[in-house]
Design a protein that fits this description.
Strand content: 25-35%
Distance between the termini: 48 Å
Shape: globular
Structural class: alpha/beta
Order of helices and strands: HEHEHEEHEHEEH
Radius of gyration: 16 Å
Length: 195
């Protein structure tokens, strides 16, 4: 699809996409993140928004032309690095306090999906944030939907659900990695001592 257009889904122009990205960033439970990872960044529209909340952000995509577009769109942001990576086979070193999986997981079959989710949870620091946001309508090349991904995440150990935003078109969830004590996820209000 990238052969025929630099932005095949019109991510920069569509109100639907801009609104979804803004909701995604607004749902983040912390005001700032130290080190974030955004696999499947496409042309970098969500990447630019995430960059405002991160000290360092690594974004990647498997399509070279998408990587080049994302690099151009973020060249004024020295704390953003965009790489070409093939997920789930490749995974960056180190840990992250934010991982954003947007419009990516429904392309993976069961084994690849399980492998990527295991790597994401393992790379997430204690109390780190895992964001998933996915289209919720059937598409021939998608192996599941946003609702299917949410069901899969519900059974994944090491995560607690903080937010579950569902619309007719997409599912946005925010999970928190459990701490060393295995305790439940803490709400934003609880984190600020309000409850």
């Amino acid at each position: 699809m990238y052969r025929s257009a630099a932005d095949p889904w019109s991510l920069a122009e569509r109100w639907y996409e801009r609104r979804k990205y803004d909701l995604t960033v607004a749902a983040l439970p912390l005001p700032r993140y130290r080190r974030a990872f955004e696999p499947g960044c496409s042309v970098g529209e969500l990447t630019r928004r995430l960059a405002d909340r991160c000290d360092a952000l690594l974004a990647c995509d498997r399509v070279e032309s998408a990587v080049e577009t994302a690099r151009r769109r973020t060249r004024d942001l020295p704390h953003v690095e965009v790489r070409r990576m093939l997920l789930p086979e490749q995974w960056p070193e180190g840990s992250f306090d934010l991982i954003v999986l947007s419009e990516l997981l429904y392309y993976l079959d069961g084994a690849a999906l399980d492998g990527l989710l295991e790597r994401a949870v393992a790379a997430l620091e204690p109390h780190g944030t895992l964001v998933t946001v996915h289209w919720d309508h059937p598409v021939p090349e998608h192996l599941t939907t946003g609702t299917g991904i949410a069901r899969r995440l519900a059974g994944l150990p090491g995560l607690g659900l903080l937010a579950d935003h569902r619309e007719e078109d997409f599912v946005l969830q925010i999970h928190q990695r459990t701490g060393p004590d295995g305790g439940p996820a803490m709400s934003v209000a609880a984190g600020e001592g309000l409850v």
